[in-house]
Amino acid sequence: MSDASSKKALICFIANLLRDCNHVAVGASSPIPGAAALLAKAAWSSPRHVNILGSVKNNFLTNGSQELFDCAAQGRIDAFFLGGGQIDGSANINLMGRGEYPNNTPRWPGTFGSAYLYFLIPKVILFREEHSRRVLVDTVDFVSAPGCSAPETYRTGGPYGLLTNKAFFKFEKEKGCFSLKSIHAGSSLEDILDNTGFDFLYDKENTPATPEPNPELLKVLENEVSVKIRDVYPQFSDTIFTH
Amino acid sequence: MIMKIEELASLIKDGCKLAIPADYSGVAMAVTRELIRQKKKKLHIIGVPTSGLQSELLIGAGCVSVLESSALTLGEYNPASRFSAAIKSGSIKLIDATCPAIHAGLQASQKGLPFMPLRGIIGSDILKNHPDWKVIQNPFSQDDDKIVAIPAIKPDVALFHAPFADREGNVWVGRRRELVHMTQASKTAYVSVEKIVDGNLLDDETLAAGVLPNLYVGAVAEAPSGCWPLSFWHGEGEDKEHLDHYKAVAGTQDGFDEYLQQFIFDGEIP
Fold first, then answer.
1. Which pLDDT score is estimated for A180?
2. Which is nearest to B49 in space by CA: B63, B68, B74, B76?
């Protein structure tokens, strides 16, 4: 699969995960999740509200950048995306840097709103294209936001799953770990085991292949949504669409 | 109240606790270049709730002693080389936060309160490393219910760029309400604007809802394209070529110093 078509497949995959949501928020510079949210809205009018931070057109909030966090605290956001330079098997994420804080090398930008939104948005999808032992580690060097909390800690949200360019894992909240749900075209269980630095649950005999994107949905993406994506993510749009 | 950029920048003193907005909200880049020309020292920067090229330049130029923010990001022009170098050498003190905590700290100041409680955060290493946050029991709950108390953040100055202001110093910020919150939390605001307009902005009710009244504003300076090379929500897009150039040269202190000389001290602005 070409890079462009594997990115389109990821967009369609994510769009399907957002179908049961009313309000999806997407952070700045997250073109694949942003495109997926726009696609789901265009295809099914569900989610009804898509809010892309940093975009003027696709941002309907009027009370400043704190309004997003107020919305999350009230349960008004159903899904959000987080990534991380490191993600571990307990769904802890590190956006701060490798090595010991505060003198990390490299230092990444910082924690942003993750230490808050991860607690308060029910369906947080961890998305990181790179699937390697460098990113998917046994234990993160810095917990920007924890995957699990003690039962007495107020938490209405948390990790739903982890999507990479090789596979989709669901997070098993009770067990506190990931389980492999489907393997993308071009990868294999062996490949995933080789490139994942944490332990996860899997079915040795029959982990399904990730379904190919629905041709109708792809058509909506190409014909209807590509223009909207170009508005928000011009450079990304140039890499996947031939306008 | 209405003055030249040089004069506005001279009001910001060494050691100032300076609140600045994220890149999407209107960054006063022209004023920032003037701060560098005036060789400010020991600034305590508060990124509301994050910061970007503005902090990167101020840090590289040696103007900053403390960076309090939820992130420093140049977006697709990452990594921020001078920020990384300063972390490596330990030349700046970091107070790393998470976005809503910056907003909450400012909100406490805005309301004249000692602190604001905030959900989430418990279990994050941000909490372990933050010098000021405290975990308290929810006083209204019979159960074990911990919540994080964020003390008021009280900047000396809020500095940002806005579309326009009138001659009385009323500034139109539209729906960028974080600029209002940030300003009301600070002792005063210094604002650069694309243009100064005639009349009083509060006379027009459709504009008035988006006006930051001059009660809170200490100085306004006209600076067309004042966000350059960053994009402005009410104006031009970013200067990609310039930002690519910055990324290419800022990797070394020498390259950065040449950049400063060319674009800031010699003031070569396209």
1. 98
2. B68
**B184 CB near a chain A CB, below 8 Å?**
no
Residue A114, classed as helix, strand or coil, is helix
Q: What is the DSSP string of A145-157?
A: B-S---TTS--S-
Contact B29, B230 (CB under 8 A): yes
Domains of chain A (ranges, CATH numbers): 3-232 (3.40.1080.10)
- Measured over the CA atoms of residue A123, residue A226, residue A28 and residue B171, the dihedral's sign is negative
Partners of A47 in beta bridges: none
For A161-209, what is each residue's pLDDT tens digit? 999 999 999 999 999 999 999 999 999 999 999 999 999 999 999 999 9
Kindly state which CATH superfamily the domain B2-97+154-265 is placed in: Glutaconate Coenzyme A-transferase (3.40.1080.10)
Number of helices (H), then strands (E), in chain A: 8, 10
With CA atoms as reference, report the closest residue to A235 among B83, B77, B232, B42.
B77
ipTM of the shown complex: 0.95
A68/A55 Cα distance (integer angstroms): 13
Q: Please write the tens of the pLDDT for every residue from A71-105.
A: 999 999 999 999 999 999 999 999 999 999 999 99
Task: Write the pLDDT tens digit of every residue in B83-96.
Answer: 999 999 999 999 99
Mutate to test the interface with B, among A26, A66, A88 (most CBs of B within 10 A): A66
Q: Inspect the interface and report whether the beta carbons of B119 and A145 lie closer than 8 Å.
A: no
- Per DSSP, the three-state class of A221 is helix
Nearest of B46, B49, B50, B58 to residue B83 by alpha carbon: B58
User: Does A66 contact B70 at a Cβ distance shorter than 8 Å?
Assistant: no
Q: Which residues does residue A57 pair with via DSSP β-bridges, in sequence order?
A: none
Q: Which of A111, A156, A233 to mutate to test the interface with B (most CBs of B within 10 A)?
A: A111
**Residue ranges of domains in chain B:** 2-97+154-265
Question: Which residue in A65, A114, A144 is closest to B178 by CB distance?
Answer: A65
Per DSSP (E only), the strands in chain B are: 2-3, 17-21, 43-48, 64-69, 93-96, 115-118, 134-137, 146-151, 157-166, 171-172, 188-197, 211-212, 217-222
Q: Which two tokens stand for residue B4?
A: 């030249």
Rg (CA), chain B: 19
Where is B245: in which H helix or E strand? helix B240-249
